[in-house]
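User: Is it possible to get a 3D structure for a protein together with its bound compound? The compound here is glutathione. I've pasted both below.
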Amino acid sequence: MTLVLHQHPLASFCHKVLIALYESGTPFERVLVNLGDEVSRTAFLALSPLGKMPALRDESRGRTVFETSIIIEYLDRYHPGSARLIPEDFDAALDVRLWDRFFDLYVQEPMQQIVSERMRADGSEARAQEARQALKRAYAVIEDRLAADDWITGETFTMADCAAAPGLFYAETLVPYGSDVPKLSAYHQRLMQRPSVARVLEEALPYFRYYPYKENLPARFKPSDAEA
Ligand SMILES: N[C@@H](CCC(=O)N[C@@H](CS)C(=O)NCC(=O)O)C(=O)O
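Assistant: Yes, that's possible. Here is the predicted structure of the complex:
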């Protein structure tokens, strides 16, 4: 197989690329990266020196690609499937890239910060609280942006929605939506029902017991007492 995605099924940034791959239908293989396992970690660091997941290896072009947005741009250009995730039109593409950045920087980052404060021995409640405030500000901006039934940049599902789905899935377990963001709440539901997103979450099911805020997951994904 020419394309190999090195990933972990629980990792939100890996979800972003998996959603893109399922949207396009592009065939690929996957390698599970376990950073806690010496052999797996060493092999992954040889491929991705910063140790950030996911990484895509394209044997047919002899390239290894990092950074989720760049991976999706790369796939869209060199391995496009049935669905294109970045529009041809420059202004429309710019909008998609802007919202992709927004979800990575202002939703995924504070979300990861809150989770990491819980995991670290020296975790800080003050830092977690700041990140919660940042998420609330991001929610308000998304609410302002959304039109009634659309995806984040309009009628077409794009790379920006690939970024939105995992960020919002985990963020909502940390800072639940209030009644002030009804359009965001409805957008979240549309994302979760999208087959590519539902598939990624289904595949993560056996791993949700390792999520530090597993008690806040939607009932469908919450591990049973026996699994937890
Ligand atoms: N900006 C990067 C972020 C990737 C990232 O943070 N990945 C997380 C998993 S969701 C990771 O590899 N964490 C392991 C670590 O930081 O040691 C991207 O878009 O690819």
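The chain has a mean pLDDT of 95. The longest helix spans residues 90-119.
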